[in-house]
Amino acid sequence: MSAALLKVTGLKKSYGAIRAVDGVGFEVMPGEIFGVIGPNGSGKTTMFNSVLGQITPDAGSIELDGRDITGLSPLELNRRGVGRTFQTLQVFGKMSVRDNLIVAAQEHHGSMFSRMFAPGDSGLGAKADALIDQFRIRHVADKKAGELSYGQQKLVDIAMAFMSDPALVLLDEPCAGVNPSLVGGIGSLLKELNRGTGEAQQKRRSFIVIEHNMDFVMDLCHRIMVMVEGTVMAIGTPAEIRANRQVLDAYLGS
Amino acid sequence: MRPMKTSLVAGLVILALLLAVPPLLKNYGVYLFSYWLVFVIANMGLNLTVGYAGQKSLGHAAFFGIGAYSVAILMKAGFSFWLGLPVAALGCFVVGLGLGFPALRVQTIYLAFATLGFNTAIWLVMRNEEWLTGGTFGINNVGRLGFFGLSLDGNLAYYYFVLGVALVMGALLWKLLASPWGKAFTALRDNPIRAESLGVNVQAYTLLSFAIGAAYAGVAGALFASLVQFVEPAPFAVGASIMMYLMVVVGGPGYFFGPLLGSAVGVLLPEWLRFAQAWYLFVFGVAVVLLMLWLPDGLLSIPDRLKARRQARAASAARAAAAQAIGAQT
Prior knowledge:
The complex is a heterodimer.
Chain A: E1 6-15, E2 18-28, E3 33-37, H1 44-51, E4 59-64, E5 67-68, H2 74-79, E6 82-84, H3 97-103, H4 112-115, H5 125-134, H6 150-160, E7 168-172, H7 180-195, E8 206-210, H8 214-220, E9 223-228, E10 231-236, H9 238-243, H10 245-252
Parallel strand pairs in A: 3-8, 3-9, 6-7, 7-8
Antiparallel strand pairs in A: 1-2, 1-4, 4-5, 9-10
Chain B: H1 2-20, H2 27-52, H3 60-76, H4 81-105, H5 108-128, H6 130-133, E1 139-140, E2 146-147, E3 150-151, H7 155-178, H8 180-190, H9 192-197, H10 202-228, E4 230-231, H11 238-251, H12 258-272, H13 280-294, H14 302-329
Antiparallel strand pairs in B: 1-4, 2-3
Helix pairs in contact in B: 2-7, 2-10, 2-11, 2-12, 3-4, 3-5, 3-10, 4-10, 8-10, 11-12
């Protein structure tokens, strides 16, 4: 087995007396789609935010490609190739869709000083167009992102996370609030992006996906981690998770 | 490309008017036009800080004052305006960078109060440090400058000089906003958390939005000192900062030409309302209240609103037509 892309060990985070994350450890392999499921309040988002530098964990370490990234800011993590989406829509409403994509990668090109004299699209126009085609949002590319429907905004939101060629992308509920017909579309887009195929051909990349839609998770993910009350209940392939008695009782139900 | 072209045409028409109209005016009219352009320059900077980068600053008049006093003090000491101008701009840039730091911790109304406190502190220095600023008596007989051997003592000559500076400052801002920086500022305003997760150095852009905005106020202050030729603390008090903020909001925050219109409302409209005498402040106040109720995004949001309404009408017409077509089939 090759070395892990992301390695989380003994992660802990408490809010007062509540142990939101209590000793979580897992590894994500290069090219893997790693699902995280669990009931509300099981610590998924706290784990996510610790990995992403949004909050500082009380204990534990996080390694990316063998290097310690514990406690780095979201900005530094992004520069090291970690992308993310948020649970709620986070597009720049007053910018066009294309500009949303361009701003999502422009800070990776040149220095702040050189960007003062760079062209408005930072030379990222072609790349943005490729993602626009892959996400089937060509017809709204010049509209303001805030004027689009929820589903379209969700697509823009996800596409933005891929503009800077990240090695690892953390997706927080990519299907939340999306209509069922689009859920399948998002699933196949993520599979394409994972393989590095499609219009915006890039390298292979790994994902961590939090999602409540079980069909979606089981279909998309290579391995799944089940979290309950801040701890890891099980990690395994979708088939293993489906067959796990303990998981069935605690979360998936009959 | 369309809005860019419209902006260009609008810019050229405005420029033609700015070149042609003032010679037809009386001396006081020309003076007022210069006064207005000075505020346009200052408010271009505030529009960057507030309108584009979304930082609620109520301390802009302090920078305007620092610019004015820099020039007044240096010219009184025998130095040239041409030294005073860069000193004013650079000084304000540095102080503005400093004022940006509270913005890294607090936002919205809390930031507004922090900047307001800063304005008060600077104003107290202007009023109390008589050895430097002349206190409440101020500094009088601030000179006009020469420009390559031309005298700018006349109001019309000085007006054209201010217009030239305004054009240069406008072009620089246009260029900055068209560069990736423009998008970074807008991203910072719309959603700083997402911006940071995409690699935008939120802290650096926040500080620079204050610093660059302040530098514009510094340049405007320098021109102001030489225009009115008398500098005292009153025009740089907190009230002036609020007035400048109002001008940016009325014109349209985040619209390039917003400050042009907003400053006209703030500087020229009160003059035109003089016929109303004692009533003028009342009329002005009511006008502002109504404007904020109907156009919270400022005067320049009118074209966008009309466009949105037209699109909505076209969309519902298309829907009605489609419904009718379906009805005809069945």
